[in-house]
Write a structure and sequence with these properties.
It is a single chain. This protein is an alpha+beta fold and 270 residues long. The protein has one domain: Creatine Amidinohydrolase (Alpha-Beta Complex). 26% of the residues lie in helices and 24% in strands. A hairpin with a 2-residue loop joins strand 4 and strand 5. It is globular and about 45 Å long. The N terminus is likely disordered.
């Protein structure tokens, strides 16, 4: 999550070397695993809470209570003035929706973006959940967006390039006729919610910053039915598709481990 694109999630990815990119210690990764478990627990509760008739602010309350119960802190509340614990974005809203009095309807696509802090280390993840019974076209959009994240994560390993991640998302989403948002991107994460490098959802395989063991990335495909272009609403937070088409958003916090990716915000196993 973030504020204005230019301030928090800029349009263009950084080029060049590893300047500004932090390599996490074993202790930092351990704390990030804990933050990731908190985020996963919150998302599991929210998935069950999304249904026709519920207000988006009620979902925010569910998240706030669970984060507090687990002894963590919300990552988004107060961040650049953001007024809620989580972001809830519905249908054409892509990201950064502010929970409020909006009532979720049958078939709505609800994007839930959750962040938590444990001992100064951050976890960040997002899912798209259909309320009630979605239209087949909506269900396909969600499935493609989620699978594009899976394919992106498969590219994560020491020696890979940022372009490998973005290319994986772009090629898969565009093969279904969808577009990927370019004005908002994923990001490094650790002791700050947004760190270098920026992680676009488009790119050229083999190009861009080389990944190193110890880096942690928040990879977050934002996939639209129509144009990739966006607009910001008057609240200066909520980002919507430029043509009013549907959008889906998924995100995981991913550690670049010695042998490949470790998803720090993976769903909890019962």
């Amino acid at each position: 999550m973030g504020g204005r694109a230019q301030q928090i999630k800029p349009v263009r990815p950084q080029a060049g070397g590893h300047r500004g990119v932090t390599i996490k210690s074993a202790r930092e990764i351990a704390n990030m695993r804990e933050a990731g478990r908190v985020v996963a627990s919150v998302i599991a509760l929210l998935r069950k809470a999304v249904c026709p008739g519920v207000k988006t602010k009620e979902l925010d309350l569910v998240a706030a209570k669970e984060i507090k119960r687990l002894g963590a802190k919300p990552a988004f509340l107060g961040y650049h003035g953001f007024p809620a614990t989580i972001c809830v974005s519905v249908n054409e809203e892509i990201v950064h929706g502010i929970p409020g009095s909006r009532v979720i309807k049958d078939g709505d696509l609800v994007k839930l973006d959750v962040g938590a802090v444990v001992d100064g280390l951050f976890g960040d993840a997002a899912v798209t959940v259909a309320a009630g019974v979605p239209a087949p076209s909506s269900a396909q959009l969600v499935a493609v967006a989620e699978e594009s994240l899976v394919k992106a994560i498969h590219e994560v390993r020491p020696g890979a390039r940022l372009g490998d991640i973005g290319s994986a998302v772009q090629r898969y989403a565009e093969s279904y006729g969808y577009s990927v948002v370019r004005e908002y991107v994923g990001h490094g994460i650790g002791r700050a919610l947004h760190e270098e490098p920026q992680v676009p959802n488009y790119g050229i395989q083999g190009r861009g910053l080389q990944l190193r063991e110890g880096m942690v990335l928040a990879i977050e495909p934002m996939v639209n039915v129509g144009t990739w272009q966006t607009k910001m609403l008057s609240d200066q937070w909520t980002v919507v598709t430029g043509d009013g088409s549907l959008s889906a958003h998924f995100e995981h916090t991913v550690f670049v481990g010695p042998n490949g990716p470790e998803i720090l915000t993976a769903p909890l196993v019962a």
